[in-house]
């Protein structure tokens, strides 16, 4: 019996004989098919090493490519190219070009943690994917994505306002960055009630959190990418 057509596209380098006998037992169907031994070369080990040496990417070496992360991924439904398994595989091979080609997908992780909770090997998948993305940004291989730009705007607003988020200032920064479009009518509709209630003052300049001077250095340190000691 020949190998079903549906299986052929995923099988590479296959040997299939008409008749195979093992220990006196004749094998047929897919049991008489054998994979040719293959060796891949040209790995760029430096990519894997650098990612594995970050706090976020430290578990990349545990991945055994089972695909559990991708099969349960929230983003998979919206973006067929989003595959944590594939991102990790390409990073471990050092295939920077393929990762660059996937740049419009790789940043879309919503941090739902399904992949991390389901991984049978204990890979912190969400963190590893972020580490791969950060590697590409660090080396100037991809453009700064909307998610990263918004994160920077959010953190900048929080740090400038004593640990508080100013929705008004964040909205203005987002509009300037092209994330939000607002008509004059929308602005007037929003500003009217704020002016009457007196909340506009709090939105423009929120009060600082208590002991902000002590908290700020901690946040600044946490925002830096740490490196696992050798």
Describe the 3D structure:
There is one protein chain. With 230 residues, this protein is mostly helical. It has 3 domains: 7-41, no CATH class; 45-139, Alpha-helical ferredoxin (Fumarate Reductase Iron-sulfur Protein, Chain B, domain 2); 146-222, no CATH class. The protein is 47% helix and 5% strand. Strands 1-4 form a two-stranded antiparallel sheet. A two-stranded antiparallel sheet has the order 2-3. It is elongated. Mean pLDDT is 78; it is low at 1-11 and 226-230.
Topology record:
Layout: E1 14-16, E2 20-22, E3 25-27, E4 33-35, H1 45-52, H2 68-71, H3 84-93, H4 96-101, H5 103-106, H6 114-118, H7 125-138, H8 146-160, H9 167-176, H10 184-197, H11 199-204, H12 212-222
Helix pairs in contact: 3-7, 8-9
The secondary-structure element order is EEEEHHHHHHHHHHHH
Give the end-to-end Cα distance, rounded to a whole number of Å: 54 Å
Please identify the top-level CATH class of the largest domain.
Mainly Alpha
The count of helical stretches stands at 12
Into which percentage range does the β-strand content fall?
Answer: 5-15%
Mean pLDDT: 78
CATH architecture of the largest domain: Orthogonal Bundle
Looking at CATH, which topology of the largest domain would you report? Fumarate Reductase Iron-sulfur Protein, Chain B, domain 2
Low-confidence stretches: 1-11, 226-230
